[in-house]
Amino acid sequence: MSFRAGILPLIALLIPLWSLAEAPAAQTLTAGDTMSVQLDISTREVQPLNPLVYGFNSNLSKVAWRYNSADYARAVADLQPAALRFPGGTTANFYHWNPASPWDPDLNETNSFYRDEIDSISDPKLRKSILAARNSLQRNNPSNPTLSFDEFMALSKANGIKPVIVVNVHTGTPEEAAAWVKYTVDNNFEVAYWELGNELYMKRYWYKDTARSRSVFRTVSRNPGDVSANAAALMENVLPAFVAAMRAASPTPIRISVTAAPFDELEAKPDNAKWDSVLARAKYDYYDAYTVHKYTGVPYDGTPVPNRNNAPYKFAEYANWFFNDNARNLDELLAHYRKQYGARRDMIVTEWNYYGFAHPQYNRSVINMTHLGALFVGDRLSTLLQNGGRISLAMYHNLGSVGRWPSPVARDRTTGEARRNPWFYPFYLVGQALEGKTQLVGATLRNAPPISGKSTWNPGTQYQFTAPYTYPGVNAVVLGDRGGSFAVLLTNRTAAIARLEINVDRKRLSRSLKSRCFANPDLGSEVAASLRTGSLAEDLRRNLLTQTFDGGDVTLPAYSYCLLEFNG
């Protein structure tokens, strides 16, 4: 994975290198239509490529595997992420990385999560989530039910991965966090960022007390209704102690991040906006980055969840919502946080996905395992690569899961075998595209038709787009190296076939090129998830359309995510 060897210093703010030239009025393209699109690549316009926008939460969903499991190690090697987050999101606020004593089954607890702390959680959903992680550890690893940081370190070192480590500031202590920093220093392990807790703006984390460890939040959340006062107390009385202890434990500078509230929820949830306004105060200058979570919402009309096998569903409407969010909403998000926190701090996105992936009652988990879900993932990855100068790091919600969660790989609940889900293929193509590439290359799409759409949520929800909107029918990002090798990631966001003409420095491409596409005109279709009875090569042959084209004329299938590779 040589693309990581010489990561260039990140630039605080870079304007994306792609643009959409003046185009005709928005239109609707249907199956059987064709469109002609021109991609102009300019090798005179290059910026450093930031591969750290290609990362994952490492093992979030009910601790599907240990880090030394062959299935998990194989998935990491196949996907080649540049970064992994440990130990995850919610679980991080209760995780103890190095308990003082070995596991004692008589205590009925794991080495990583203390049972008395779990029992004291007042929020029933939160208690259930942490208990599920603990129980999964015991069920899958009865002799040593530990979420092992050493195993994670070994896996990351073997694959050249930079970790983001989430520190337990909820039931942990500054001393515990400092010992963790020292441990990474002693083992010559480079950490990209240290996060101070996960989603601390959520009130469910504020009220907790345990016999083993008194939550630091207990000392600051004196008034449940006063978000601003609680946030200020946390920023003044709790987090500085963690930062000071952690920095003192490292002879070299470390980068520390705090949790910002989600941009998409600020209007609907005023408390989140109050939290953000406190964190942005100039006097709190001890952190280097702010952590953002980005979940894309989709329309909900209140109807019961349909069965895809016997009822039509609004997949085209969902596609409009997803692609517009990737094309437009991310710019709004970046502008908001830059105004709120200024340009001197990094923005890191340690979770991104779409809302409702695990909640059928919200009518949106119907997207799980479908081609639309995978297409959204690929398109979002391209958008993140385009913004790698403005976003310092980005991570998908989770790499491995149990059951039908939307993750690249999943563990079958019955057999325990690993399978590759539809999400695997766009991530795989991005990993392949990044191999050996160091530059983001200038690219302009011409004649890509703008697509029109309109979606509305019920009043009171997070998203309220009621006016028509448009987004380009094709999205492209071009990666390169100094030797003239190119990798182009393209999303055909339409039901039409795209005829693509490629020009490099105003000259028509005459070299042959290889195209690999994950495509299906039926957005609601599920890829036949193959258990790992066959090889990766067999899976790729089955699920990726591979073609070779002579010259600069390429065909992109309808609703496809494609990787083109060629030498200029």
Describe what you observe in this structure:
- There is one protein chain.
- The chain contains 11 helices and 24 strands.
- The protein is of the alpha/beta class and 568 residues long.
- The strands form 4 sheets. Strands 1, 2, 14, 17, 18, 19, 20, 21, 22, 23 and 24 form an 11-stranded mixed beta sheet that branches.
- Helix 1 (70-79) links the parallel strand 3 and strand 4.
Main attributes?
single chain, 568 residues, alpha/beta, eleven-stranded mixed sheet, eight-stranded parallel beta barrel, 11 helices, disordered N terminus
| Strand tally | 24
Query: Roughly how many Å is the radius of gyration?
Result: 23 Å
Terminus-to-terminus distance: 22 Å
Helical segment count: 11
Overall residue-averaged pLDDT value: 82
- Sheet having the most strands: 11 strands, mixed
The percent range for strand residues is: 15-25%
What's the helix and strand layout?
Layout: E1 18-20, E2 34-48, E3 55-57, H1 70-79, E4 83-86, H2 115-119, H3 124-140, H4 149-158, E5 162-167, H5 174-186, E6 193-196, H6 227-248, E7 256-259, H7 270-279, E8 289-296, H8 315-341, E9 346-354, H9 371-386, E10 393-396, E11 400-402, E12 409-411, E13 418-420, H10 424-434, E14 439-446, E15 450-453, E16 469-472, E17 474-480, E18 485-492, E19 497-504, E20 507-508, E21 512-519, H11 536-543, E22 545-550, E23 553-556, E24 560-567
Parallel strand pairs: 1-14, 2-19, 3-4, 3-10, 4-5, 5-6, 6-7, 7-8, 8-9, 9-10, 11-12
Antiparallel strand pairs: 2-14, 12-13, 14-17, 15-16, 17-18, 18-24, 19-20, 19-23, 21-22, 21-24
Helix pairs in contact: 5-6, 6-7, 8-9, 9-10
